[in-house]
Amino acid sequence: MEIKKAEFIKSAVYANEYPKFNNFTEFSFIGRSNVGKSSLINSLTKRKNLARTSKTPGRTQLINYFLINDKIHFVDLPGYGFAKVPQAVKKNWGKIIEDYLTSDRKKIVFLLLDLRRIPSNEDMEMLKWLEHFEIEYYIIFTKSDKLSNNEKFKQLKEIKKKLVFDNEDVFFYSSLKNTGREELLKFIEEKTQNYE
Questions:
Q1: Tens of pLDDT along 133-185?
Q2: CATH of 6-195 among 3.30.465.60, 2.40.110.10, 3.40.50.300, 1.10.730.10
């Protein structure tokens, strides 16, 4: 899949604010704060500032919609986890994410996990949650450029003590080097065709 056109459509909080294009498949990116959701969207679209990135965890506080090639949406969801924000705000984010994920939109969710970290309790809760609501999801390990092959092998061994998966069933991505970009775009294209 070649991305020829990518544009920010809108930010939303409530279901009635989501874009009206219900026939579009939505590819949603979720993960803990600072896992690299916005950077990944920028890398996929080859647009440096399409999705706002920040070194400050918790910058994405709304659901951000991007229209890709006039036929699908990328959706950047608020991060969960260690963001330095008041508890009330965190609670509100949880509600925003829950409302989106349980909506009846055609969506495929990518759960982003930092390859350098063992999945947190919040990551595991999100996985259980996605399975409970029977939401189609796939795991992307981000920041894969930060580890050598040897370190990656050891780290995956540790991660697999907590999470069961086969390496060929997950994606490894580096937004810095665009590693994994072609594989992910091919996958998105196949899924889009299946949903048409």
A1: 899 999 999 999 999 999 999 999 999 999 988 888 999 999 999 999 999 99
A2: 3.40.50.300
